[in-house]
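Quick one:
INPUT:
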C-alpha cells in the first residue's frame, strides 16, 4: 500500500510540470460550483468536466428525468440507476437505508448544494433518505465506488450530489399539486429571478399521506407528513467576486410500529417520530489570473433533531431524543494550466457533535450521552490529457482525526476516448476511510476501542455510442476491513463489553466484519426522437469474509440482481406517456442468511397532457400489479396507488 501511495504522489508531482511545456494555450478554469450544465460532470473531480474525461462511474438524473418520472420521493428515483438499492421500514417516510454497490448506507456521502449531509447522532452517521423528496431538486449525480480522496470520511460506497434549481429569467415560478391513493396530497411552489447582480430562488413543498401499516400484518395505517423549505441567492459583488447563501429545511412526522413490552413482539402501536433537518451554506468565490484560478471559502452547517414518542406510555411519552450537529469550514481551489490540464485542491475542518437519550418508565429523565469529534483534511487532485483522448486523474488526501490520528488516501482514474469519443474506456481505483461514529463510540451501546473502517475499490468499464444508442458496462470490486457491526449480548453473556458502568446492556459496536463486494453494471439508453428508452442491470455479489459462523454468507438486504426499464413516449399532440419496470432479486434479511426475502417486480404507468405551454396535467399508477414485497423483514410495503396532478410555470 505504501508503494501505491508513493507512486500516486510521484504521478501528481510529475503531472504538475507537464502542462507548462505541453501547450501554451490557456483555458478558463472549470467552475467548481456550476452543476447546472447537463453535459458536464462535477462530482467526480469537484470541478466541471466533460464526461469523456472522467474515469469513475457516474450516473446523472436531470430535471427532465425528474419531470417525466413524476417523482415525489427521491429514493425510488435513485434506485432506478445502476448499483443502487434500498430498504425501508414500512411506507413513505419510514426509516430508509440506501446502498451503493452493496456498501453500508453510512458509507455513502450525500451532498445538497455543496453541503455534506450526515447525522452524528445516528447509528452510523448516515443520511436517512426517509425525508428526502424531489422538492426543488433540479439535478442529481451519483458517483459510484470509494471516493474518500475528494469527499472524505464515509465515501466508501460512493457520493450522491443533489443540486436545487436556479432561475434563468428575470422572474419565474412554478407551482404543482397532486392527490391520490391513501389520502395522499403534495403541493410545491417556487419563485426566483435574475437581476443585475443578484440571482435568487425560494421554494416550499408539503406532503401528507395516511400511508400503510409499518407492521406487514398490521391493520392500523401509519401516516406521514413532511414540510420543506429551501432558498438560495448569489450576489455578484464584482466581476470576479461573488457570494452564495443556500439553505434547506425539512420537518417530518412519521407514525411507526415498534416492539412493545413485555413480549417485544412486532405489533400495531401508536408510536410516532418527528425529525427536523437544517442544511445551511455560506460561501465566497474569488476568481484570479483571468479566471484560471478559482477559489471558494465556505462554511456549511447541518443539524438533525429526532424525537420518538409513544402515547401509550404512562410515565413519559418520549422514548428517544437525539440531536446531531456538524460545522464545516472549507477552502477549495481549482487552477487551469491549459485546456486539458487542471488541478483541484482544498482544506477542510469539520466538527461533529451529538446528544442522545432514551427515556423510559424506569428512567424518564436519563442523563444524555454527549460527544464531539474534530476532523481536518487536506487534498489535491490533478487531471490532464497525457495523450490524445487519454485523460488521467490522480489524487491524495490526508485526514487528521482527533481520536484516530492521521490517514493518507489515494485515488487513480483513467478515461480513454476513442473513435472521436464514440467509445470511452474507463478504470479507477480509490481508497475509503471512515472513522467510527460518535454514536458507535459514546452512546449507550458505544465502544471507545473501535478502529476506523478502511476500503479499497476498483472498477473498469466501457461506454460506446452508436448513433442514438449508448451502452455501458462496468465491473466493480470492493474490499472493506474493520467494518463496524452491532454485537448482541445475551442474558448470560460474560463478555466485558456487554456491561457498561456495571449494568448489562443489549449489545455494543465492534470491528467484527471483513466484507467483500463485486459485480457488474450494464446499461443502455436510446433516444429515438419521440421515444426514450433506458434500461440497466446490476449483479452484486456480497460476502461476509470475517472468520466466524457467518463467514461466506451474503450481506443482509443486498439483492443479488436488479434491473430497471423505462420507456417514455412523446406523441407529438401534447400527450406523453411512460412505463417503468423495476425488478429486485432475492436477498437475506439477516447476517446468518436464515430468512430469505423473495424477488419482486414493480410496474408503474404514467401520462401527461400539456393543456397550454405553461400548464400540464399528469397522472400515474404506481405498483400496477399490486405486488406485495419486503425490503425489510416484517415491515409493510406500498401497494397499488393512483395519483393525478397539475403543474404550471409562469
Amino acid at each position: 500500500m505504501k508503494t501505491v501511495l508513493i507512486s500516486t504522489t510521484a504521478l501528481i508531482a510529475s503531472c504538475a510540470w507537464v502542462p507548462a511545456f505541453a501547450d501554451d494555450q490557456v483555458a478558463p478554469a472549470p467552475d467548481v460550483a456550476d452543476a447546472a450544465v447537463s453535459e458536464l460532470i462535477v462530482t467526480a473531480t469537484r470541478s466541471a468536466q466533460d464526461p469523456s474525461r472522467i474515469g469513475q462511474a457516474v450516473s446523472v438524473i436531470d430535471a427532465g428525468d425528474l419531470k417525466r418520472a413524476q417523482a415525489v420521493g427521491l429514493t425510488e428515483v435513485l434506485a432506478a440507476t445502476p448499483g443502487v438499492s434500498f430498504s425501508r421500514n414500512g411506507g413513505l417516510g419510514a426509516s430508509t437505508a440506501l446502498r451503493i454497490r452493496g456498501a453500508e448506507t453510512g458509507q455513502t456521502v450525500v451532498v445538497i448544494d455543496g453541503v455534506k449531509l450526515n447525522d452524528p447522532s445516528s447509528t452510523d452517521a448516515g443520511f436517512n433518505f426517509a425525508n428526502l423528496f424531489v422538492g426543488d431538486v433540479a439535478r442529481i449525480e451519483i458517483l459510484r465506488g470509494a471516493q474518500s480522496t475528494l469527499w472524505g470520511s464515509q465515501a466508501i460506497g460512493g457520493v450522491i450530489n443533489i443540486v436545487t434549481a436556479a432561475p434563468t429569467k428575470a422572474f419565474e415560478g412554478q407551482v404543482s399539486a397532486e392527490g391520490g391513493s391513501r389520502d395522499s396530497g403534495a403541493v410545491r411552489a417556487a419563485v426566483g429571478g435574475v437581476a443585475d447582480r443578484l440571482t435568487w430562488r425560494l421554494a416550499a413543498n408539503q406532503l401528507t399521506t395516511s400511508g400503510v401499516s409499518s407492521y406487514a400484518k398490521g391493520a392500523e395505517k401509519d401516516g406521514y407528513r413532511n414540510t420543506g423549505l429551501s432558498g438560495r441567492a448569489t450576489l455578484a459583488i464584482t466581476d470576479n467576486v461573488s457570494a452564495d447563501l443556500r439553505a434547506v429545511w425539512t420537518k417530518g412526522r412519521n407514525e411507526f410500529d415498534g416492539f412493545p413490552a413485555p413480549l417485544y413482539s412486532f405489533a400495531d402501536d401508536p408510536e410516532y417520530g418527528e425529525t427536523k433537518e437544517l442544511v445551511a451554506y455560506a460561501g465566497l468565490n474569488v476568481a484570479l489570473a483571468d479566471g484560471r484560478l478559482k477559489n471558494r471559502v465556505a462554511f456549511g452547517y447541518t443539524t438533525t433533531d429526532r424525537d420518538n414518542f409513544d402515547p401509550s406510555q404512562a410515565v413519559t411519552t418520549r422514548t428517544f431524543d437525539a440531536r446531531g450537529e456538524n460545522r464545516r469550514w472549507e477552502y477549495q481551489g481549482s487552477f487551469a494550466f491549459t485546456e486539458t490540464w487542471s488541478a483541484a485542491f482544498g482544506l477542510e475542518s469539520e466538527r461533529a457533535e451529538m446528544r442522545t437519550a432514551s427515556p423510559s418508565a424506569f428512567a424518564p429523565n436519563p442523563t444524555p450521552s454527549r460527544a464531539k469529534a474534530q476532523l481536518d483534511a487536506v487534498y489535491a487532485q490533478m487531471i490532464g490529457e497525457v495523450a490524445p483522448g487519454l485523460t488521467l486523474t490522480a489524487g491524495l488526501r490526508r485526514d487528521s482525526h482527533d481520536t484516530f490520528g492521521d490517514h493518507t488516501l489515494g485515488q487513480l482514474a483513467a478515461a480513454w476516448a476513442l473513435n472521436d469519443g464514440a467509445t470511452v474506456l474507463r478504470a479507477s481505483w480509490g481508497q475509503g476511510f471512515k472513522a467510527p461514529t460518535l454514536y458507535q463510540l459514546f452512546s449507550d451501546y458505544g465502544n471507545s476501542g473501535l478502529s476506523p473502517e478502511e476500503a479499497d475499490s476498483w472498477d473498469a468499464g466501457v461506454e460506446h455510442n452508436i448513433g442514438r444508442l449508448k451502452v455501458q458496462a462496468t465491473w466493480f470490486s470492493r474490499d472493506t476491513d474493520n467494518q463496524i457491526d452491532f454485537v448482541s449480548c445475551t442474558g448470560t453473556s460474560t463478555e466485558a463489553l456487554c456491561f457498561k458502568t456495571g449494568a448489562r446492556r443489549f449489545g455494543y459496536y465492534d470491528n467484527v466484519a471483513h466484507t467483500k463486494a463485486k459485480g457488474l453494471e450494464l446499461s443502455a439508453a436510446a433516444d429515438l426522437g419521440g421515444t426514450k428508452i433506458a434500461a440497466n442491470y446490476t449483479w452484486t455479489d456480497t460476502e461476509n469474509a470475517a472468520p466466524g459462523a457467518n463467514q461466506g454468507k451474503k450481506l443482509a438486504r443486498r439483492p443479488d440482481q436488479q434491473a430497471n426499464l423505462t420507456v417514455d413516449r412523446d406523441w407529438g399532440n401534447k400527450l406523453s406517456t411512460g412505463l417503468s419496470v423495476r425488478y429486485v432479486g432475492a436477498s437475506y434479511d439477516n447476517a446468518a442468511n436464515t430468512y430469505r426475502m423473495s424477488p419482486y417486480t414493480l410496474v408503474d404507468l404514467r401520462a401527461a397532457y400539456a393543456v397550454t405551454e405553461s400548464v400540464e396535467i399528469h397522472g400515474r399508477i404506481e405498483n400496477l400489479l399490486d405486488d406485495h414485497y419486503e425490503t425489510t423483514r416484517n415491515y409493510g410495503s406500498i401497494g397499488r396507488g393512483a395519483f393525478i396532478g397539475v403543474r404550471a410555470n409562469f
